[in-house]
């Protein structure tokens, strides 16, 4: 008799039939005698629609009100899932994030979980219920509703699995597991049987939205081993766990593409100490996450100036532009340019530590395809390049074929 946390993503609860399928799967586990906590996302498209609705009212809505709005998506699904279980004669009760004891900080729209006191969850499990928990949401100690960032239901599941010391954590989605690349873009991509936390961290951080980045960070920190698998069949999925020795034999585990980044360039920024610090402190104060940064060689004598480029999530572009425009008087730069037509292509693998020539091979492959590289960044187990978005998918297939074909 195991305690299992299962999470079902948007497509897996996308219509009444799918929700009934979830209930049927839960029923199967229950028949084995397992106890279940089921985390669900909003039905597919719902969160995006809520965001559109808000933007139709105003371009930069209050983040507190965004959380109030977005939390309703998951609240719909928990009730429907509980009903689907009732229809099968299974006792089930739905809980919001707050009711499940998920306490977060107050950073609206990307709150961090501070602690979980799952008293109610335990009580319901002890009473023989299946517990359905709304993913992606929590509550501050002061009682404000918060959300955990896009894809945050993954985090709810992993954090609950840690807090409940669950025997198993299963992330059900619309593909068979973690693949060597997004199977929707690279038809030759292969499902991986296992992947190290660090590799999935880098893939998730560079656009492979199969798992939310912060949920993988959490799993690594608390040693939560989990499985990513399909809600549409019974195939075994991908086990995500600490790195093992044999994983280093594979040079590249996967390729990812992030089409959700935008580049901001500040032109004519005076080249003297403290300028970059000023720009990035202001962005950090506004809770804007900056990814890649490039500063050009300074030009001009006397009072030299430089151009500073950095990338941010598209969803934060407006906010970032506003911050930089707010600094115009103080910094006296010439101009700010935003470019949304970029893609960030990355290759990831712990084997990179012990193999050389990986970057050269990636750049050669792109050169052969006639693709220009705009920015480059690397970590011990990752190489990322920013390229023109129109060529990004072709580039991804070519790089996948070069390393994993
Ligand atoms: P859910 O709604 O279940 O959370 P998501 O849409 O967030 O599902 O994530 C699953 C999707 O992630 C897949 O449909 C797939 O297109 C995409 N994806 C991107 N990269 C990968 C990858 N390397 N392996 C598997 N899926 C990936
Ligand atoms: N519904 C939220 C989103 O679309 C959270 C999730 O699906 O994990 O981002
Ligand atoms: Mg997801």
Overall helicity: 25-40%
- Largest beta sheet: what is the strand line-up? 3-6-2-1-9-11-12-10
Low-confidence stretches: none
CATH class of the domain at 3-174: Alpha Beta
CATH topology of the domain at 3-174: Carbamate kinase
- Number of DSSP strand runs: 20
Rounded Rg:
23 Å
The CATH homologous superfamily of the domain at 3-174: Acetylglutamate kinase-like
For the termini, the CA-CA separation is: 42 Å
On the 0-100 scale, what is the average pLDDT? Answer: 96
What coarse outline follows from CA principal-axis ratios? globular
Provide the β-strand percentage band: 25-35%
Under the CATH scheme, the architecture of the domain at 3-174 is 3-Layer(aba) Sandwich
Give a quick precis of the structure.
It is built from twelve helices and 20 strands. The chain is α/β, with parallel strands linked by helices and 405 residues long.
């Amino acid at each position: 008799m195991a305690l299992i946390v299962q999470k079902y993503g948007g497509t897996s609860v996308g219509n009444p039939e799918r929700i009934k399928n979830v209930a049927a799967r839960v029923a199967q586990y229950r028949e084995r005698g397992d106890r279940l906590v089921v985390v669900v996302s909003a039905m597919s498209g719902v969160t995006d629609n809520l965001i559109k609705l808000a933007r139709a009212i105003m371009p930069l809505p209050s983040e507190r009100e965004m959380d109030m709005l977005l939390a309703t998506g998951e609240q719909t699904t928990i009730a429907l899932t509980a009903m689907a279980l009732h229809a099968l004669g299974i006792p089930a009760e739905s809980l919001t994030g707050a009711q499940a004891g998920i306490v977060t900080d107050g950073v609206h729209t990307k709150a961090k979980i501070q602690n979980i006191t799952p008293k109610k969850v335990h009580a319901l499990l002890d009473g023989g219920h299946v517990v359905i928990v709304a993913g992606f949401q929590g509550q501050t100690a002061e009682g404000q509703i918060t959300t955990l960032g896009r894809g945050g239901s993954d985090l709810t599941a992993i954090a609950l699995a840690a807090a409940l010391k669950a025997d198993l954590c299963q992330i059900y989605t619309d593909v068979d597991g973690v693949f060597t690349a997004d199977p929707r873009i690279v038809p030759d991509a292969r499902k991986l049987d296992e992947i190290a936390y660090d590799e999935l961290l880098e893939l998730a951080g560079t656009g492979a939205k199969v798992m939310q980045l912060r949920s993988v960070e959490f799993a690594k920190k608390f040693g939560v081993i989990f499985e990513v698998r399909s809600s549409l069949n019974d195939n075994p999925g991908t086990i995500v766990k600490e790195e093992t020795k044999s994983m280093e034999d594979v040079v590249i585990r996967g390729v990812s593409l992030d089409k959700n980044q935008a580049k901001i360039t500040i032109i004519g920024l005076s080249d003297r100490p403290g300028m970059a610090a000023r720009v990035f402190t202001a962005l950090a104060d506004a809770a804007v996450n900056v990814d890649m940064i490039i500063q050009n060689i300074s030009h001009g004598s006397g009072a030299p100036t430089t151009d500073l480029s950095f990338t941010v999530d598209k969803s934060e572009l407006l906010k970032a532009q506003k911050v930089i425009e707010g600094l115009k008087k103080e910094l006296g730069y010439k101009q700010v340019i935003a470019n949304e037509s970029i893609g960030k292509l990355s290759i990831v693998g712990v084997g990179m530590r012990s193999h050389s020539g990986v970057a050269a091979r990636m750049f050669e492959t792109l050169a052969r395809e006639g693709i220009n590289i705009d920015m480059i960044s690397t970590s011990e187990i990752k190489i990322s390049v920013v390229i023109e978005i129109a060529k990004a998918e072709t580039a991804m297939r070519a790089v996948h074929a070069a390393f994993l074909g």
